[in-house]
Amino acid sequence: MKYFNRLTYSNTTNHTASYAIFLAVVLSCSLLACKSTGFKIGNLDVGKLVEQGVNVFNANNIDEEQEIQFGENMSAVLLGTRPLYENKDINLYVNKVGMWLAANSSRPHLPWQFGVINSTAINAFAAPGGFVFITSGMLMQLENESQLAAVLAHEIAHITQKHHLNAIKDDANRSAVTESLFISAQAYQDNTESSNEDKGYRIWAKKVTGMAQDLYSKGLDRDDEFQADQYGIRLLAKSGYDAFAYIDNLQIIASIAADDSALALLYKTHPTPSQRLEALANQLDKLAMNDGLLLTKRFKQEMN
Amino acid sequence: MPRYVNYCLSIIVTPLFITTVLLFTLVSVNVSFAFTANLTPQQSKSVRLGQVIKKVNLLKQPNYQSDITGSIAAKEKVKIQTRKSAWYFISTATSPQTSDLSGWVNMLNVRFVAAAKREGELGVESLFSSVTNDSLPTVSTGVRGFDVDDLKKAKANLKQVALLNTYAVSAGAAARFAKQGKLKVSHIKVKED
Known about the structure:
The complex is a heterodimer of chains A (304) and B (193).
Chain A: H1 2-9, H2 14-32, H3 34-37, E1 40-41, E2 44-45, H4 46-54, H5 64-81, H6 88-103, E3 113-117, E4 124-127, E5 131-135, H7 136-139, H8 145-160, H9 163-168, H10 171-174, H11 185-192, H12 199-218, H13 222-238, H14 245-255, H15 264-269, H16 273-284, H17 296-303
Parallel strand pairs in A: 3-5
Antiparallel strand pairs in A: 1-2, 4-5
Chain B: H1 3-37, E1 48-52, E2 56-59, E3 68-72, E4 77-84, E5 87-91, E6 102-106, E7 110-112, H2 148-153, H3 158-166, H4 171-180
Antiparallel strand pairs in B: 1-4, 1-7, 2-3, 4-5, 5-6
């Protein structure tokens, strides 16, 4: 922060100068062993930042704290595209369904947050670290709670399997991966002494929005989409829902005119519903004994 | 008319009038509220039109051990009446002339027939024009959309993130919610476990 700046800009007093030397020593020590020391200024892990600025970013080394911050930044762009649906009760309902599924997933401890995005597009999104979104346009296509859970389960699987981190490991994305993505706007501003209007903030925002646009326009690896279907339908069954509602959803999407603009981004970023149905076919036998619930009545009550 | 009759009438009519006005106001407020908060699908989807993707046997019960009661040729249009587990109960009676066949088929052998574009979308085609298509769409405009172009114009909205955070529920609250709905953890092996 302030001391950090003085280190590079000024030595106005002896006191400051000696402090700067002291800091320089600490900093260089931490540079030598930055992985283990975790030298921090405020929320910012300088050790990590320096390393990540120098080396090509290694997505395998992202810890959970960074993963969550990355997801929050991506969510800020998703919600900057379209805001949350205004109705609080519907958002709370989606959170309850989602949290029940997440609690049965392999990463129940993440700070799971679910939101309904106010958009006529038919789609759902996930961001690393536990952020899940469904559009109001998608919600309107559904008939019961199990179908809602099916949509959320697919997105939860993307998060538990770290599919977004997998996507940024690709060569095409790697150059765009910078430290800005893994710190909050606040931490970035604190450490660069920039304000919301400043260039510093704009650099942060540009990096974050650039990555979000890239991730959500291109979509994830197609194999990861199939895996999210496979794990999603099982998570749905495990959580006590009628797992075949998952198939219903894909049938519904398949039945909407394919050139309907509401589906444009979903089709751009996912295999076609028919391909997904075929891929799920061999999963169904294993789930044949499942007698889970649809919860149609509760869904309709909550949507009204 | 005697004056007291007139007086009595006004005693009866005035409260009636006020009540009606009040009721009407309440109803209209309620209706407008429903318009803003309602996310229910507009049309009933209880019976859907489908198409079998290959020649399938019609079964008496929703399992492969069941008796076969008939068969349906590939691409024939069917009405999907209900679903039980992985099975649809379908009938072929799409017109009065057709003989009435019905039975259970595996849901994966049926696709919903693609509907016409929804309201607000241009280029309405005949209602049951084509079965599900694998072709990729080209049109990419939409009202309140969420498209590549919309993403490009987006700015990070931290206030919305803070709002999202206020909606989060605890695992305990979710467990209580599941219990209310009689949802139970089923011991199906999840691959990721």
